[in-house]
């Protein structure tokens, strides 16, 4: 279990660095952490991050820019509202101009 907690903490460290108004994907974080096939684990970490106010889990989406984690937020549209408050345009659960606002930790860190 300790290994998972360490992975979650590493995931949170990366998520905390995502700039306001930008998004990344579960897979991009997993790849940055050297565990490219662990995108699902990053998703699990983001689900647990809702108790941590300093982890912007709403900025982590799937590789196509779809808000697949939205059901894990309080309220039906909270994830979308948080993103829209940062200027991110979301239409039918999909981020618009995804390639322009995508933040890749491999390139940025």
From TrEMBL:
Q: Name one GO molecular function term.
A: catalytic activity
Q: Which Pfam families match?
A: DNA_binding_1 (PF01035)
Keywords per UniProt: DNA damage
A GO BP entry:
DNA repair
Task: Show the SUPFAM superfamilies listed in the entry.
Answer: Methylated DNA-protein cysteine methyltransferase, C-terminal domain
Positions of the Methylated-DNA-[protein]-cysteine S-methyltransferase DNA binding domain:
6-88
- NCBIfam families hit by this protein: ogt
PANTHER family assigned to the protein according to its UniProt record, in alphabetical order: 6-O-METHYLGUANINE DNA METHYLTRANSFERASE, ALKYLTRANSFERASE-LIKE PROTEIN 1
Q: Supply the name of the protein.
A: MGMT family protein
| Protein's organism | Polaribacter marinus
């Amino acid at each position: 279990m300790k290994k998972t907690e360490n992975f979650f903490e590493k995931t949170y460290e990366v998520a905390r660095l995502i700039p306001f108004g930008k998004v990344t994907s579960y897979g991009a974080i997993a790849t940055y952490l050297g565990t490219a096939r662990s995108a699902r684990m990053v998703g699990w970490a983001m689900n647990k991050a809702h108790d941590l106010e300093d982890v912007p889990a709403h900025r982590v989406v799937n590789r196509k820019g779809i808000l697949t984690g939205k059901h894990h937020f309080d309220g039906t549209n909270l994830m979308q509202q948080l993103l829209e408050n940062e200027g991110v345009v979301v239409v039918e659960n999909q981020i618009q101009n995804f390639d322009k606002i995508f933040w890749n930790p491999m390139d940025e860190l």
